[in-house]
Structures are given as C-alpha cells and as structure tokens.
Automatic annotation (TrEMBL):
Pfam families: Cupin_2, HTH_31
Location of the region described as Disordered in the Swiss-Prot/TrEMBL record: 1-27
UniProt-listed SMART domains: HTH_XRE
SUPFAM superfamilies: lambda repressor-like DNA-binding domains, RmlC-like cupins
Organism: Gordonia prachuapensis
CDD domains: cupin_XRE_C, HTH_XRE
PANTHER family: HTH-TYPE TRANSCRIPTIONAL REGULATOR, METHYLPHOSPHONATE SYNTHASE
Protein name per the record: XRE family transcriptional regulator
Boundaries of every HTH cro/C1-type domain copy: 40-94
UniProt key word Flavoprotein: no
C-alpha cells in the first residue's frame, strides 16, 4: 500500500489569508445584481450546497435563488440578510465586485513627480511613482537615485514600514546598529522608527525603489 502523501495542514490560530485571486467571470463594474449573483453562486458552491439545499436553508424558493444567481432579480434587504446568514458571511461580502470607482495611478517611466526629501539638499533625487487618495494615501512609492553629487550622511526616521529594492549600483545601508550591502535584486524591509540611511556608496550610480507604508493614522506631508 502506498504511503499517504497528502500534506498536513496545521491550525496556527492566525486569521485566514485574504483571497487575492479573482476568477475569470467575476464582475468588475457597477452592476449590483451581477455582483450579488456571482458572490452567492461562488459562496454556495464553495460551501458544497446545491441550489435546492441553499434555497431550503435560507427559506426561499429554488426558482427565486436561481433568479438571484443569474442576476434576473433584485434582492430585498431581508433576502440579502438571509442569504448571508445561510452562507455564514457578512452581508457586505455579497457586494464584492460591485464598486464603481476604484482609483489607479499609472506613471510612465521617467514621468514621476520630483519631490523634495531630506536627502535632496545633498544630491539625492526622489521621484514619486504615484499616490492614491483617502485611506490608500498611506503608501508612498519613490524611486531614489544617488550619483557622484550625492553625499552619504542623511539619516531617516519615520513611522511605518519601509521596503528598499535595489535596482542599480551597490551601497551599504544602515538600520539601527546593523549594516546591509545591497546589490541589484536585493531587498531590505525595515521598521521606519529605526534610524536608517546609506552608509557607503560603493558603486555609482545607485537606483533603488523605496516604498513606505505609513500607519493608518499618519498624515504624509
């Protein structure tokens, strides 16, 4: 008898990861009925229930559930609440994909806004690669370029988390008491509250992507 090669899944107590992948037929616009239809059908199938089983569980007719799943009718609030209860999900889960406006920023190569940072005065060049509004404003992606005109001395400290991704050149970057030699393809993820900055510009020019994720209550300048 062959050994069971099914991997063992351990319950770590951590919350389930957020599902990022969107199936091919998921609605992407503002059709509310289509969004509800897609979510109800997807959640029902994931729960392993037939249309008849689901209809019986939530107390509606099989024909009505079929119309809902085919976007042929508009649900009342009470029906939505019963569907959500039967699927064991928040009511808001049934609206996923129905949002009309979701902001996106496209920045062409070399067309990012030049911004002033602490290192600007010593030759550091900062190119902002885009910025969303509202709650998404807390993410700041910047392309940093260091040349022969750049000095090494600026130190930085700020709330949030920062990721550096090296694109060109070589530098020694400090964070707290530690030093890291960064080459193209290297990535450094750091706590922004720790004092950090370049210690040695080994090979110029240097280009790296710096993405800072600020806390929810932080207002960027």
């Amino acid at each position: 008898m062959s050994a069971d090669t099914t991997p063992t899944v351990r319950d770590t107590g951590d919350p389930a990861p957020v599902q990022r992948e969107v199936v091919g037929d998921a609605p992407t616009g503002g059709d509310l009925e289509a969004a509800i239809a897609h979510q109800v059908r997807l959640l029902r199938r994931n729960a392993g229930m037939s249309v008849a089983d689901m209809a019986a569980k939530v107390g509606i007719s099989k024909a009505m559930l079929s119309k809902i799943e085919n976007a042929q009718t508009s649900c009342s609030l009470s029906t939505l609440a019963r569907l959500a209860a039967g699927l064991d999900v928040p009511v808001t889960s049934l609206f996923r994909g129905a949002d009309v406006d979701r902001e996106a920023i496209f920045t062409e190569a070399g067309k990012g806004a030049v911004i002033v940072g602490r290192g600007t005065r010593v030759g550091h060049h900062y190119e902002l690669l885009g910025g969303l509004r509202g709650q998404h404003k807390r993410l700041e992606p910047v392309l940093v370029t260091l040349t022969d005109d750049s000095e090494v001395f600026p130190r930085f400290q700020h709330p949030g988390t920062e990721m550096l991704y090296m694109l060109e050149g070589v530098m020694v970057y400090g964070h707290g008491k530690a030093e890291y030699t960064l080459r193209p393809g290297d990535c450094l993820l750091l706590d922004g509250e720790g004092i950090h900055g370049p210690h040695d510009l080994v090979r110029l020019p240097i280009r790296f992507l710096a993405v800072t994720a600020y806390p929810d209550n932080h207002e960027t300048e």
